[in-house]
Amino acid sequence: MSEITVSESKDYFIKDGKPFFYLADTIWMAFSKLSESEWRDYLHYRKVQGFNVVQVSLFPLDHDNSADENELLPFMKNEDGTPDYYVRNDAYFNKVEKMIAVAAEYGITVALHLVWAHHIPDSWASKGHEERVIPEAQLYPIYSYAVERVKKYHPVYAISGDVRFENQAVTDYCMKVLKIVNELDNGALTTLHIAPGEQPDDSLIYNPALKFYSYQSGHSFLDQDNPEKFSAQFLKQLVKRPIVNTEPSYEGHKDGFREGRFRAEDVRRMAWSSLMTGAKAGITYGAHGIWSCHRRENFFNNASFSGIPYDFGTALRFPGAWDFSFAKAIFEDAKLYDIQPAQELLENPIPGCYCCKAEDKLAVYLPYNSEVILKKNVSKWHGRMIILEDHNVGVPVYYERDGKTIISVHDFNSDVYTCLAGTEHKLSSV
User: Fold this and answer.
1) One domain, residues 229 and 324
2) Closest CA relative to residue 24, chosen from 155, 115, 182
3) For labeling, which of 43, 213, 249, 259 is most exposed (least CB within 10 Å)?
4) How many Cβ atoms sit within 10 Å of the Cβ of residue 389?
5) How far apart are CA 245 and CA 109, in angstroms?
6) Which one is predicted more confidently, 64 or 125?
């Protein structure tokens, strides 16, 4: 398995000497719950869809868990049933290494999420659940053992999961894990999986051992503008790095504590708003039932927030995953790695409409049908329109008026990607 690196421009990733669009799926609980045959079937299906990364938690999540009496655990249990972090279950780590090796067979990189908020003392998720905390004395024995076993497969390491960095102790804890990873797998692709809207202090976020920025935009219909807000935060950082939304809304997931679930068109809009506002190095998909490896007959312990998950086999075939795959195809075909947010070119700002530009290329995402007015006359450029709901390709109607470009209302009642370019080969032919 070859290593993923960061491009010289710090805008995107490189693998095997070529631009690498990070298309990830979220399957947090795979190591503890899936058999090898299930894992292979899952990887095959995602491989066909164009996914090249899967995000897996090194250890099972306690706070979002589908109960499974047959699940394999990384540590032995104390008499009261709590994990004994001093007694490792080698069978679990054997399985972890085997599953990462199998993923490599399919050309898929595993993004290992190492430390969740509930593992960290004095964090929001460990208060009242101190039995979940991994003692600091065990950080090196646990994580050095894991890294030494898997580093030959060049995984991505996400140091933190859902962490709010509410105090220095939390920051210091994550810094220790980052140091271990950096010592044992120097140069590996690393990031932080941060709770929505949170930011670590400069000592961590500017640490040279971190290679890219990531954020999660949340699981609420009230969070639809979060990709733009969070991308803007990272674009302003003193250190430039690629940006990825590693946890947008999951398809089939409940709208937080409100009623309603995210459909394919909802998560597709979240994907495109991420890509068009600065998080262009890639996107991450999630399906409610996949990430927890849920079985219909099992109990899920966080249904009040997330909703009861769909069965794993059902969620695997949700249509939204194909929309994410299609977005990757568009980016790769049109070579959009160099685009930059250009909202200032929109004469008529429309909620959810985003504009990007490169040297001789303009891209517009429109979430619903409307006329778009660009402050720049590119009416002589070549144009391509893609109806994202059904993946049909057409030609947009656009013309010049008063030195501006008018992109006319299209004939479809869905979201549309439009690209205008100075030369034909700059357009996506998808």
Assistant:
1) yes
2) 155
3) 259
4) 16
5) 17
6) 125
